[in-house]
Design brief:
Layout lengths: L1 H11 L10 E11 L3 E11 L2 E11 L4 E10 L13 E9 L1 E7 L8 E12 L2 E7 L2 E2 L6 E6 L6
Antiparallel strand pairs: 1-2, 1-8, 2-3, 3-6, 4-5, 4-7, 7-8, 7-10, 9-10
């Protein structure tokens, strides 16, 4: 039942707030704060109707909230892991349990792998941490990248 609810929410996420519907089931990974604390999940994917448009959603629990997120999505790893240099950014109104960052792919997603770097500012009860979508360490501080392969546009 929970899996079905998660799948349903990922398929229709964004439809109610006027943004494109995005199937965020292409990437699901933990959101890690302070290098070791699993504070929630990161989901990413593309709009089934426009495979060059997508979104990543960071969602936290256990009293954590997100105030700012930075996102890189591309065919190659980013040239810098400085989150402020990533091309996409979204601020929350205050501190929210969920933050969505929309992006545009460099070309229509047709099965090739994309590199994702998602960074967020997280807090809980006065504890402030940086968070990354869990993936492969980049060797630069404790930053990580992950990714997804898009479904072919024909299917």
């Amino acid at each position: 039942m929970v899996r079905t609810a998660l799948l349903w929410s990922s398929l229709v996420f964004g439809a109610l707030d006027g943004r494109a519907e995005v199937d965020t089931s292409l990437l699901l990974t933990p959101l890690i704060a302070g290098q070791t604390i699993n504070i929630g999940t990161l989901r990413c994917g593309v709009d089934p109707a426009r495979p060059d448009v997508g979104a990543c959603v960071g969602q936290v629990s256990d009293g954590w909230c997100l105030s700012l997120a930075h996102l890189y999505v591309g065919l190659e790893p980013p040239s810098t892991m400085a989150p402020g240099q990533f091309p996409y950014r979204q601020s929350a109104n205050g501190c929210a349990p969920q933050i969505r960052v929309d992006f545009r792919l460099p070309r229509v997603c047709r099965g090739q792998p994309y590199v994702v770097a998602f960074h967020a500012e997280a807090s809980r009860a006065g504890q402030n941490e940086t968070a990354w979508g869990q993936g492969s360490p980049t060797g630069r501080n404790w930053s990580m990248t992950t990714g997804f392969s898009c479904r072919p546009a024909d299917t």
